[in-house]
TrEMBL record:
PANTHER family per the UniProt record, alphabetical: PTS SYSTEM GLUCOSE-SPECIFIC EIIA COMPONENT
Organism: Actinacidiphila paucisporea
GO cellular component terms attached to this protein's record: cytoplasm
GO molecular function, one term: kinase activity
GO biological process, one term: phosphoenolpyruvate-dependent sugar phosphotransferase system
Protein name, per record: PTS system N-acetylglucosamine-specific IIA component, Glc family
Length: 149
């Protein structure tokens, strides 16, 4: 069982509320989403594992069970070409839950005309594999979002 933690502080709104059909339709995988607090900060690893994909706006950490967890910082933020994002780790690095991965500013993302909402997705999972899925709550970085069997 893998416990997936919130990579940032904010309000959990659930995937269905994400303003992107790929995420809201769970095409990437099941999970939830966070509307982050509007202050500069760090997105942290939601699980212990290895960074297998790393972009300024998104990262994937794979744990020892082979579960890949995608954290996507905002919607359409790839169009910002890394502006306002600072990578704090490298692809291939081993991270612990709560380790800082990317420094960013959700308010700057919003000011640039993009949604700062952050999907947190269990890649290649079924909805049935997740339990305790949080769809609405205020969270701090490190609070549990769901468990993955």
């Amino acid at each position: 069982m893998t416990t997936v933690s919130s990579p940032l502080a904010g309000r959990v709104i659930g995937l269905a509320a994400v303003p992107d059909p790929v995420f809201s339709g769970a095409m990437v995988g099941p999970g939830t989403a966070i509307d982050p607090v509007r202050e500069p900060g760090e997105a942290v690893s939601p699980v212990d594992g290895v960074i297998v994909s790393l972009h300024p706006h998104a990262f994937v950490v794979v744990d020892d069970a082979g579960h890949g967890v995608l954290t996507h910082l905002g919607i359409d933020t790839v169009q910002l070409n890394g502006e306002g994002f600072e990578l704090l780790v490298s692809k291939g690095d081993t991270v612990a839950r709560g380790d800082a991965v990317v420094r960013w500013d959700p308010a700057a993302v919003e000011a640039a005309g993009k949604s700062p909402i952050c999907p947190v997705v269990a890649l290649e999972a079924t909805a049935e594999a997740l339990s305790g899925l949080v769809e609405s709550a205020d969270v701090a970085a490190g609070d549990t979002l769901f468990s993955w069997k």
